[in-house]
Amino acid sequence: MFKPVPVAIGLRYLRAKRRNGFISFISLASILGIALGVTVLITTMAVMSGFQKEIRDRLLQFAAHATVVADGVPMQDWQHALDVAAADPRVAGAAPFIETEALLSGPRKQPAMVRGIVPALEDQVSVLAEKMKRGSADTLADGSYNILLGQELALWLGVDLGDQVTVMLPEFQGSPIGAMPRYKRFTVSGVFEAGYNDIDRGLAVVHMADLQRVLRMDGASGVRLMLHDMNQAYEVARDLALKLPGYYRVSDWTRENANLYQSLKMEKTVMGILLSLIILMGAFTLVNSQVMLVTDKQADIAILRTLGLTPGGVMQVFMVQGTLIGIIGTVLGFIGGVTLTWNLERILDGIEALFNVTLLPEDVYYITGLPTDMQTNDVVLTLVVALVMSFLATLYPAWRAARTQPAEALRYE
Protein backbone atom coordinates (compact mmCIF):
# COMPACT_ATOMS: atom_id res chain seq x y z
CA MET A 1 0.00 0.00 0.00
CA PHE A 2 1.80 3.10 -1.27
CA LYS A 3 -0.43 5.66 0.42
CA PRO A 4 -0.93 6.30 4.14
CA VAL A 5 -3.42 3.92 5.72
CA PRO A 6 -5.98 6.61 6.74
CA VAL A 7 -5.97 7.98 3.18
CA ALA A 8 -6.38 4.52 1.67
CA ILE A 9 -9.30 3.64 3.94
CA GLY A 10 -10.92 7.05 3.41
CA LEU A 11 -10.74 6.58 -0.38
CA ARG A 12 -12.15 3.08 -0.03
CA TYR A 13 -15.12 4.36 1.99
CA LEU A 14 -15.74 6.98 -0.69
CA ARG A 15 -15.74 4.42 -3.51
CA ALA A 16 -17.48 1.57 -1.75
CA LYS A 17 -21.23 0.94 -2.03
CA ARG A 18 -22.75 1.33 1.38
CA ARG A 19 -25.29 -0.93 2.96
CA ASN A 20 -27.40 2.07 3.97
CA GLY A 21 -28.63 3.77 0.81
CA PHE A 22 -29.90 6.74 2.76
CA ILE A 23 -26.34 7.64 3.80
CA SER A 24 -25.26 7.53 0.14
CA PHE A 25 -28.16 9.81 -0.75
CA ILE A 26 -27.19 12.30 1.97
CA SER A 27 -23.58 12.27 0.74
CA LEU A 28 -24.78 12.92 -2.81
CA ALA A 29 -26.95 15.76 -1.49
CA SER A 30 -23.89 17.21 0.24
CA ILE A 31 -21.95 17.18 -3.03
CA LEU A 32 -24.83 18.76 -4.92
CA GLY A 33 -25.41 21.37 -2.21
CA ILE A 34 -21.78 22.50 -2.22
CA ALA A 35 -21.69 22.41 -6.03
CA LEU A 36 -24.86 24.49 -6.28
CA GLY A 37 -23.57 27.05 -3.79
CA VAL A 38 -20.24 27.42 -5.61
CA THR A 39 -22.01 27.69 -8.99
CA VAL A 40 -24.43 30.36 -7.81
CA LEU A 41 -21.74 32.33 -6.00
CA ILE A 42 -19.33 32.35 -8.96
CA THR A 43 -22.08 33.39 -11.38
CA THR A 44 -23.50 36.09 -9.11
CA MET A 45 -20.09 37.60 -8.41
CA ALA A 46 -19.37 37.64 -12.16
CA VAL A 47 -22.68 39.40 -12.89
CA MET A 48 -22.16 42.00 -10.16
CA SER A 49 -18.59 42.62 -11.33
CA GLY A 50 -19.96 42.94 -14.86
CA PHE A 51 -22.47 45.59 -13.80
CA GLN A 52 -19.75 47.44 -11.88
CA LYS A 53 -17.49 47.43 -14.93
CA GLU A 54 -20.35 48.52 -17.21
CA ILE A 55 -21.31 51.44 -14.96
CA ARG A 56 -17.68 52.47 -14.53
CA ASP A 57 -16.98 52.34 -18.27
CA ARG A 58 -20.11 54.31 -19.13
CA LEU A 59 -19.30 56.93 -16.51
CA LEU A 60 -15.66 57.28 -17.58
CA GLN A 61 -16.69 57.81 -21.20
CA PHE A 62 -17.43 61.41 -20.18
CA ALA A 63 -15.65 61.72 -16.82
CA ALA A 64 -11.87 61.80 -17.05
CA HIS A 65 -9.67 59.47 -15.04
CA ALA A 66 -8.19 62.46 -13.20
CA THR A 67 -8.48 66.25 -13.07
CA VAL A 68 -6.08 68.98 -12.06
CA VAL A 69 -8.04 72.14 -11.19
CA ALA A 70 -6.62 75.59 -10.45
CA ASP A 71 -7.32 76.63 -6.88
CA GLY A 72 -9.09 79.99 -6.68
CA VAL A 73 -8.03 81.48 -10.01
CA PRO A 74 -8.35 80.18 -13.59
CA MET A 75 -5.50 78.19 -15.12
CA GLN A 76 -4.01 80.75 -17.51
CA ASP A 77 -1.29 78.68 -19.15
CA TRP A 78 -3.26 75.49 -19.69
CA GLN A 79 -1.28 74.74 -22.85
CA HIS A 80 1.86 74.33 -20.72
CA ALA A 81 -0.05 71.89 -18.50
CA LEU A 82 -0.97 69.87 -21.60
CA ASP A 83 2.68 69.78 -22.68
CA VAL A 84 3.79 68.56 -19.24
CA ALA A 85 1.06 65.90 -19.27
CA ALA A 86 2.01 64.76 -22.79
CA ALA A 87 5.59 64.19 -21.61
CA ASP A 88 4.39 61.67 -19.01
CA PRO A 89 4.25 58.16 -20.55
CA ARG A 90 1.43 57.21 -18.20
CA VAL A 91 -0.89 59.81 -19.75
CA ALA A 92 -2.92 58.77 -22.80
CA GLY A 93 -4.53 62.16 -23.39
CA ALA A 94 -5.21 65.57 -21.84
CA ALA A 95 -7.61 68.41 -22.55
CA PRO A 96 -8.60 71.70 -20.86
CA PHE A 97 -12.12 72.34 -19.60
CA ILE A 98 -14.41 74.78 -17.83
CA GLU A 99 -17.31 73.58 -15.70
CA THR A 100 -20.03 75.60 -14.07
CA GLU A 101 -23.50 74.94 -12.77
CA ALA A 102 -26.34 76.64 -14.62
CA LEU A 103 -30.09 76.75 -15.05
CA LEU A 104 -31.11 75.81 -18.58
CA SER A 105 -34.40 77.16 -19.90
CA GLY A 106 -36.43 76.06 -22.88
CA PRO A 107 -40.14 75.36 -22.77
CA ARG A 108 -39.22 73.98 -19.33
CA LYS A 109 -36.34 74.60 -16.92
CA GLN A 110 -33.74 72.17 -15.66
CA PRO A 111 -30.46 72.66 -13.73
CA ALA A 112 -27.40 71.07 -15.27
CA MET A 113 -23.61 71.17 -15.38
CA VAL A 114 -22.32 73.13 -18.38
CA ARG A 115 -18.90 72.01 -19.57
CA GLY A 116 -16.75 74.07 -21.92
CA ILE A 117 -14.39 72.01 -24.08
CA VAL A 118 -11.94 72.37 -26.93
CA PRO A 119 -13.45 70.04 -29.59
CA ALA A 120 -10.09 69.34 -31.24
CA LEU A 121 -8.73 67.94 -27.95
CA GLU A 122 -11.86 66.41 -26.43
CA ASP A 123 -11.52 63.06 -28.18
CA GLN A 124 -8.36 62.45 -26.12
CA VAL A 125 -10.33 62.32 -22.86
CA SER A 126 -13.89 61.30 -23.80
CA VAL A 127 -15.98 59.61 -26.48
CA LEU A 128 -18.42 62.48 -26.95
CA ALA A 129 -18.28 62.32 -30.75
CA GLU A 130 -19.10 58.59 -30.72
CA LYS A 131 -22.12 59.01 -28.44
CA MET A 132 -23.98 61.59 -30.53
CA LYS A 133 -27.55 60.47 -31.22
CA ARG A 134 -28.49 63.51 -33.30
CA GLY A 135 -26.37 66.31 -34.66
CA SER A 136 -22.59 66.38 -34.45
CA ALA A 137 -19.90 67.43 -32.00
CA ASP A 138 -18.17 69.25 -34.88
CA THR A 139 -20.86 71.95 -34.67
CA LEU A 140 -19.13 73.33 -31.56
CA ALA A 141 -17.11 76.19 -33.01
CA ASP A 142 -15.67 79.31 -31.46
CA GLY A 143 -18.36 81.99 -31.59
CA SER A 144 -21.15 79.68 -32.76
CA TYR A 145 -22.79 79.49 -29.32
CA ASN A 146 -23.99 76.00 -30.07
CA ILE A 147 -24.74 73.55 -27.27
CA LEU A 148 -24.86 69.76 -27.00
CA LEU A 149 -27.37 68.27 -24.56
CA GLY A 150 -27.74 64.87 -22.95
CA GLN A 151 -30.73 62.99 -24.30
CA GLU A 152 -32.64 63.03 -21.02
CA LEU A 153 -31.80 66.69 -20.47
CA ALA A 154 -33.18 67.57 -23.91
CA LEU A 155 -36.40 65.69 -23.11
CA TRP A 156 -36.79 67.45 -19.77
CA LEU A 157 -36.23 70.83 -21.40
CA GLY A 158 -38.57 69.98 -24.28
CA VAL A 159 -36.09 70.98 -26.99
CA ASP A 160 -34.51 69.41 -30.05
CA LEU A 161 -32.03 70.34 -32.78
CA GLY A 162 -32.27 73.97 -33.78
CA ASP A 163 -34.15 75.10 -30.68
CA GLN A 164 -32.91 77.87 -28.42
CA VAL A 165 -31.80 77.21 -24.84
CA THR A 166 -31.07 79.97 -22.35
CA VAL A 167 -28.13 79.24 -20.05
CA MET A 168 -28.48 81.21 -16.80
CA LEU A 169 -25.33 81.24 -14.65
CA PRO A 170 -25.13 81.68 -10.87
CA GLU A 171 -23.17 84.92 -11.29
CA PHE A 172 -24.64 88.40 -11.15
CA GLN A 173 -23.86 91.52 -13.09
CA GLY A 174 -24.92 95.09 -12.45
CA SER A 175 -27.80 96.64 -14.38
CA PRO A 176 -30.00 99.77 -14.10
CA ILE A 177 -32.56 97.71 -12.21
CA GLY A 178 -30.05 96.08 -9.92
CA ALA A 179 -28.08 92.83 -9.91
CA MET A 180 -29.12 90.42 -12.67
CA PRO A 181 -27.96 86.84 -13.28
CA ARG A 182 -25.70 86.38 -16.27
CA TYR A 183 -27.30 84.46 -19.12
CA LYS A 184 -26.81 83.61 -22.78
CA ARG A 185 -28.89 81.92 -25.47
CA PHE A 186 -27.41 78.86 -27.15
CA THR A 187 -28.65 76.85 -30.11
CA VAL A 188 -29.07 73.10 -29.69
CA SER A 189 -26.85 71.52 -32.33
CA GLY A 190 -26.58 67.98 -30.99
CA VAL A 191 -27.96 65.40 -28.55
CA PHE A 192 -25.76 62.68 -27.02
CA GLU A 193 -26.50 59.55 -25.00
CA ALA A 194 -23.90 58.27 -22.55
CA GLY A 195 -26.09 55.46 -21.24
CA TYR A 196 -25.71 56.81 -17.70
CA ASN A 197 -28.63 58.78 -16.32
CA ASP A 198 -26.65 61.34 -14.28
CA ILE A 199 -24.75 62.38 -17.41
CA ASP A 200 -27.64 62.20 -19.88
CA ARG A 201 -29.82 64.30 -17.61
CA GLY A 202 -27.27 66.61 -16.04
CA LEU A 203 -24.62 67.58 -18.63
CA ALA A 204 -24.51 70.17 -21.41
CA VAL A 205 -21.43 70.80 -23.55
CA VAL A 206 -20.37 74.03 -25.28
CA HIS A 207 -17.19 75.41 -26.81
CA MET A 208 -14.77 76.57 -24.11
CA ALA A 209 -14.20 79.95 -25.80
CA ASP A 210 -17.94 80.66 -25.81
CA LEU A 211 -18.23 79.82 -22.12
CA GLN A 212 -15.20 81.97 -21.36
CA ARG A 213 -16.91 84.97 -22.90
CA VAL A 214 -20.14 84.34 -21.03
CA LEU A 215 -18.26 83.97 -17.74
CA ARG A 216 -15.85 86.81 -18.63
CA MET A 217 -13.07 84.46 -17.71
CA ASP A 218 -9.52 83.99 -18.99
CA GLY A 219 -8.00 80.54 -19.05
CA ALA A 220 -9.56 77.24 -18.05
CA SER A 221 -10.85 75.65 -14.87
CA GLY A 222 -8.26 72.91 -15.20
CA VAL A 223 -7.03 69.94 -17.19
CA ARG A 224 -8.68 66.54 -17.59
CA LEU A 225 -6.45 63.46 -17.97
CA MET A 226 -7.01 60.07 -19.56
CA LEU A 227 -4.49 57.41 -18.48
CA HIS A 228 -3.29 54.07 -19.76
CA ASP A 229 -3.87 52.63 -16.28
CA MET A 230 -6.82 54.23 -14.49
CA ASN A 231 -5.64 52.83 -11.14
CA GLN A 232 -2.72 55.28 -11.23
CA ALA A 233 -5.03 58.28 -11.67
CA TYR A 234 -4.35 60.05 -8.38
CA GLU A 235 -0.57 59.57 -8.50
CA VAL A 236 -0.31 60.86 -12.08
CA ALA A 237 -2.51 63.91 -11.36
CA ARG A 238 -0.52 64.71 -8.22
CA ASP A 239 2.79 64.50 -10.10
CA LEU A 240 1.43 66.85 -12.79
CA ALA A 241 0.20 69.36 -10.19
CA LEU A 242 3.62 69.40 -8.51
CA LYS A 243 5.30 70.28 -11.83
CA LEU A 244 3.04 73.29 -12.44
CA PRO A 245 3.45 76.73 -10.83
CA GLY A 246 0.77 77.73 -8.38
CA TYR A 247 -1.70 75.74 -6.32
CA TYR A 248 -4.00 73.05 -7.70
CA ARG A 249 -6.63 70.65 -6.48
CA VAL A 250 -6.25 67.05 -7.61
CA SER A 251 -9.07 64.55 -7.97
CA ASP A 252 -9.57 61.22 -9.67
CA TRP A 253 -12.49 59.04 -10.73
CA THR A 254 -12.54 57.07 -7.48
CA ARG A 255 -12.94 60.21 -5.36
CA GLU A 256 -15.41 62.01 -7.62
CA ASN A 257 -17.72 58.99 -7.57
CA ALA A 258 -16.78 57.57 -4.18
CA ASN A 259 -20.36 57.03 -2.97
CA LEU A 260 -21.35 55.13 -6.11
CA TYR A 261 -18.36 52.79 -6.09
CA GLN A 262 -18.51 52.20 -2.34
CA SER A 263 -22.20 51.28 -2.58
CA LEU A 264 -21.54 48.91 -5.48
CA LYS A 265 -18.66 47.32 -3.58
CA MET A 266 -20.79 46.93 -0.46
CA GLU A 267 -23.64 45.35 -2.45
CA LYS A 268 -21.23 42.84 -3.95
CA THR A 269 -19.75 42.00 -0.54
CA VAL A 270 -23.14 41.57 1.13
CA MET A 271 -24.42 39.46 -1.76
CA GLY A 272 -21.34 37.26 -1.54
CA ILE A 273 -21.84 36.72 2.19
CA LEU A 274 -25.53 35.87 1.76
CA LEU A 275 -24.90 33.43 -1.09
CA SER A 276 -22.14 31.77 0.93
CA LEU A 277 -24.94 30.48 3.14
CA ILE A 278 -25.88 28.09 0.31
CA ILE A 279 -22.41 26.56 0.60
CA LEU A 280 -22.86 26.50 4.38
CA MET A 281 -26.09 24.53 3.95
CA GLY A 282 -24.20 21.99 1.87
CA ALA A 283 -21.56 21.82 4.59
CA PHE A 284 -24.22 21.12 7.24
CA THR A 285 -25.58 18.34 5.04
CA LEU A 286 -22.04 16.99 4.88
CA VAL A 287 -21.92 16.98 8.70
CA ASN A 288 -25.13 14.94 8.80
CA SER A 289 -23.90 12.41 6.28
CA GLN A 290 -20.59 12.01 8.09
CA VAL A 291 -22.26 11.53 11.47
CA MET A 292 -24.50 8.82 10.01
CA LEU A 293 -21.49 7.23 8.30
CA VAL A 294 -19.60 7.13 11.59
CA THR A 295 -22.61 5.45 13.23
CA ASP A 296 -22.85 2.96 10.38
CA LYS A 297 -19.12 2.14 10.55
CA GLN A 298 -18.88 1.53 14.29
CA ALA A 299 -17.83 -2.09 13.83
CA ASP A 300 -15.22 -1.16 11.19
CA ILE A 301 -13.81 1.47 13.49
CA ALA A 302 -13.55 -0.98 16.37
CA ILE A 303 -11.74 -3.54 14.19
CA LEU A 304 -9.32 -0.89 12.94
CA ARG A 305 -8.63 0.16 16.51
CA THR A 306 -7.91 -3.46 17.55
CA LEU A 307 -5.55 -3.76 14.57
CA GLY A 308 -3.50 -0.87 15.92
CA LEU A 309 -4.94 2.23 14.22
CA THR A 310 -4.67 5.15 16.61
CA PRO A 311 -7.59 7.50 17.43
CA GLY A 312 -5.79 10.15 15.34
CA GLY A 313 -5.65 7.71 12.44
CA VAL A 314 -9.39 7.01 12.72
CA MET A 315 -10.03 10.74 12.73
CA GLN A 316 -7.94 11.14 9.60
CA VAL A 317 -9.94 8.41 7.81
CA PHE A 318 -13.21 10.31 8.10
CA MET A 319 -11.59 13.69 7.53
CA VAL A 320 -10.16 12.39 4.24
CA GLN A 321 -13.51 10.92 3.20
CA GLY A 322 -15.47 14.07 4.08
CA THR A 323 -12.89 16.44 2.57
CA LEU A 324 -12.98 14.50 -0.71
CA ILE A 325 -16.76 14.97 -0.83
CA GLY A 326 -16.19 18.71 -0.38
CA ILE A 327 -13.49 18.76 -3.10
CA ILE A 328 -15.75 16.92 -5.55
CA GLY A 329 -18.61 19.35 -4.86
CA THR A 330 -16.29 22.35 -5.20
CA VAL A 331 -14.85 21.14 -8.51
CA LEU A 332 -18.32 20.45 -9.90
CA GLY A 333 -19.44 23.88 -8.71
CA PHE A 334 -16.44 25.52 -10.35
CA ILE A 335 -17.18 23.82 -13.67
CA GLY A 336 -20.87 24.69 -13.37
CA GLY A 337 -20.20 28.31 -12.40
CA VAL A 338 -17.77 28.94 -15.25
CA THR A 339 -20.05 27.23 -17.77
CA LEU A 340 -23.14 29.10 -16.57
CA THR A 341 -21.33 32.45 -16.61
CA TRP A 342 -20.03 31.92 -20.15
CA ASN A 343 -23.50 30.98 -21.41
CA LEU A 344 -25.59 33.36 -19.29
CA GLU A 345 -26.28 35.68 -22.22
CA ARG A 346 -27.62 32.81 -24.34
CA ILE A 347 -29.76 31.55 -21.46
CA LEU A 348 -31.20 35.05 -20.96
CA ASP A 349 -31.99 35.34 -24.67
CA GLY A 350 -33.67 31.93 -24.58
CA ILE A 351 -35.86 32.85 -21.61
CA GLU A 352 -36.88 36.13 -23.26
CA ALA A 353 -37.73 34.33 -26.52
CA LEU A 354 -39.60 31.50 -24.76
CA PHE A 355 -41.80 33.70 -22.57
CA ASN A 356 -41.85 36.74 -24.88
CA VAL A 357 -40.63 39.10 -22.16
CA THR A 358 -37.80 41.61 -21.82
CA LEU A 359 -35.93 41.02 -18.58
CA LEU A 360 -33.65 44.07 -18.94
CA PRO A 361 -35.51 46.84 -20.79
CA GLU A 362 -33.02 49.16 -22.48
CA ASP A 363 -35.02 52.29 -21.67
CA VAL A 364 -34.81 51.47 -17.95
CA TYR A 365 -31.35 49.95 -17.49
CA TYR A 366 -29.51 51.41 -20.54
CA ILE A 367 -28.05 47.91 -20.94
CA THR A 368 -29.16 45.56 -23.71
CA GLY A 369 -27.69 42.38 -22.23
CA LEU A 370 -26.47 40.91 -18.96
CA PRO A 371 -22.82 41.94 -18.48
CA THR A 372 -20.46 39.51 -16.79
CA ASP A 373 -16.87 39.93 -15.63
CA MET A 374 -15.50 36.78 -14.02
CA GLN A 375 -12.57 37.92 -11.91
CA THR A 376 -9.92 35.46 -10.79
CA ASN A 377 -9.87 36.82 -7.22
CA ASP A 378 -13.62 36.22 -6.81
CA VAL A 379 -13.40 32.67 -8.17
CA VAL A 380 -10.41 31.76 -6.00
CA LEU A 381 -12.07 33.23 -2.89
CA THR A 382 -15.25 31.24 -3.60
CA LEU A 383 -13.31 27.98 -3.98
CA VAL A 384 -11.31 28.62 -0.82
CA VAL A 385 -14.49 29.35 1.18
CA ALA A 386 -16.11 26.15 -0.09
CA LEU A 387 -13.06 24.00 0.70
CA VAL A 388 -12.61 25.51 4.18
CA MET A 389 -16.27 24.97 5.03
CA SER A 390 -16.08 21.39 3.79
CA PHE A 391 -12.98 20.72 5.86
CA LEU A 392 -14.49 22.22 9.00
CA ALA A 393 -17.63 20.13 8.48
CA THR A 394 -15.58 16.93 8.81
CA LEU A 395 -14.01 17.76 12.17
CA TYR A 396 -16.90 16.91 14.52
CA PRO A 397 -17.88 13.57 12.86
CA ALA A 398 -14.20 12.57 12.70
CA TRP A 399 -13.74 13.47 16.36
CA ARG A 400 -16.75 11.31 17.27
CA ALA A 401 -15.28 8.43 15.30
CA ALA A 402 -11.95 8.78 17.12
CA ARG A 403 -13.75 8.47 20.50
CA THR A 404 -15.30 5.11 19.57
CA GLN A 405 -14.40 2.39 22.10
CA PRO A 406 -13.78 -1.02 20.43
CA ALA A 407 -15.41 -3.02 23.26
CA GLU A 408 -18.57 -0.93 23.20
CA ALA A 409 -18.81 -1.01 19.40
CA LEU A 410 -18.39 -4.83 19.19
CA ARG A 411 -20.59 -5.71 22.17
CA TYR A 412 -23.60 -6.71 20.06
CA GLU A 413 -21.76 -7.86 16.93
Question: Could you walk me through the main structural features you see in this protein, from its secondary elements to its overall organization?
Answer:
- With 413 residues, this protein is α+β, with helices and mostly antiparallel strands.
- 55% of the residues lie in helices and 19% in strands.
- The protein has 16 helices and ten strands.
- The chain has helices at residues 5-15, 21-60, 78-86, 119-122, 151-157, 197-202, 208-215, 233-243, 253-256, 258-296, 298-306, 311-342, 344-355, 362-365, 376-402, 406-409; strands at 66-70, 91-105, 109-117, 132-135, 146-150, 164-173, 180-192, 203-207, 222-227, 248-252.
- Strands 2-3-8-5-7-6 form a six-stranded mixed beta barrel.
- α1 packs across α12 (311-342).
- The longest helix is centred in the first third of the chain and has 40 residues, at 21-60.
- It is elongated and about 100 Å long.
- The two termini are 29 Å apart.
- The mean pLDDT is 83.
Helix/strand layout:
Blueprint: H1 5-15, H2 21-60, E1 66-70, H3 78-86, E2 91-105, E3 109-117, H4 119-122, E4 132-135, E5 146-150, H5 151-157, E6 164-173, E7 180-192, H6 197-202, E8 203-207, H7 208-215, E9 222-227, H8 233-243, E10 248-252, H9 253-256, H10 258-296, H11 298-306, H12 311-342, H13 344-355, H14 362-365, H15 376-402, H16 406-409
Parallel strand pairs: 3-8, 5-7
Antiparallel strand pairs: 1-9, 1-10, 2-3, 2-6, 2-9, 4-7, 5-8, 6-7
Helix pairs in contact: 1-12, 2-10, 2-12, 2-15, 10-12, 10-15, 12-15
Mean pLDDT: 83
Oligomer designation: single chain
Q: What are the segments in which pLDDT stays under 50 over at least 5 consecutive residues?
A: none
Task: Write the element-wise H/E pattern from the N-terminal end onward.
Answer: HHEHEEHEEHEEHEHEHEHHHHHHHH
Largest sheet: 6 strands, mixed, barrel
Q: What is the beta-strand fraction?
A: 15-25%
Tell me the overall shape: elongated
